[in-house]
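Exercise 7. Given the components listed, write out the predicted structure of the assembled complex. Treat all entries as one system.
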Amino acid sequence: RKEVEQDPGPFNVPEGATVAFNCTYSNSASQSFFWYRQDCRKEPKLLMSVYSSGNEDGRFTAQLNRASQYISLLIRDSKLSDSATYLCVVTFNNDMRFGAGTRLTVKP
Amino acid sequence: DADVTQTPRNRITKTGKRIMLECSQTKGHDRMYWYRQDPGLGLRLIYYSFDVKDINKGEISDGYSVSRQAQAKFSLSLESAIPNQTALYFCATSDLPRGITGELFFGEGSRLTVL
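Answer.
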């Protein structure tokens, strides 16, 4: 079993749709959680950190469920510019493990 | 100019050749990392360095070596390249331990093809 697992997609959604991604992790002692965004042929960039209480940044909402060992990312009112691969990252003792990513395509 | 710079950006080489990928950063971060990215596997850590004298193996260090020449420079070497080392390689820095976010700042990547 991979340490961090994501549905690879692709998710193809129309503009304005709401889409959600989940990511599960195997190490129950994991300490920090992040979502990164990676555009095609580009480097990953931090989208948002994920806090136990959940957090929101504009159209993006991240949630953490420690009991079930998953994090989620919700994107509301999808834009064409949201098309990218979304990487889940889980940290334990400075060891950051990446999921393989979920590809999102937002269509007109 | 990019804060984390990788050279070369693209390289095609032959099996058995020695290859060096270089990374330099202007962010003043102590921690530097080398990852490789393969389709369907995500990013995997090759080596990381918490300062000039502290170098550690990551998940997949076999076949690779690194050198931390200075705080700002971290190079990755493939002593004898093989085709399954064909991948996209990323260098990254982190603001830990002084920073609080743990965010990784990536270079633009080096695409390596081994024939």
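Discussion: Residues 7 and 102 of chain A are 6 Å apart (CA to CA). The interface with chain B takes residues 4, 8, 32, 34, 36, 41-46, 49, 87, 89, 91, 94-96, 98-101 of chain A (CB under 8 Å).
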